[in-house]
Amino acid sequence: MTHILGAMRWTRRRRGSAGAARGVAGPGRRFALPALALAVGLALTGCSGGSDAVDATGGGNFGFVQQAPGQDYAAPGDRKAAPALSGKTLTDEDLDVASLRGKVVVINFWASWCAPCRAETPALVKLAGERPEIAFVGVNSRDDVSPARAFVRTFGVTFPSLFDEVGKLTAHWPISVGLPSTVVLDPEGRIAARFTGGVTEAELAPVLDRVTAET
What we know:
Shape: globular
Number of strands: 9
Distance between the termini: 49 Å
């Protein structure tokens, strides 16, 4: 960050000197400031997920093809294995998503302070109750235990949620840095689909049918 700011100050001084020689110092400043803002923005974006974060803009090499805004799907031949995901749940039990291999798995990344998470949760709870052959797992990210547990009680969430207090688990997944995000794994543990932002039953159910029908 420091070297970026230093480079931009040096660029502004050079442009200012050249402009003064031409009697037009103003434009040099107008060009330098947007460039500085862009450099700062890129630096902050790059630091938001930590050095281990997956590139959330395109999902790396996970083979996604956009189906609709905020909805991506990967054909079976293009899928990649999902990152490891294990830890303690909100009820202090051990859970490793790898143990669910053989099932279609829905992983929902959420937080109690997230308004879209509150809006989408009833649909997830409904689908989890109607589709017992599909495993649903939550990842409570960047949250505190007490409000997270209260969220689960309020919405009657029956499936487990891993507790990811500082977002370390979440950072390894090809999802947006914002919440919520939902990922669908095929029975081989590969990422078949992802939803950025709140997901509805009408959006998620057809994808579950599609991935289930592949087996």
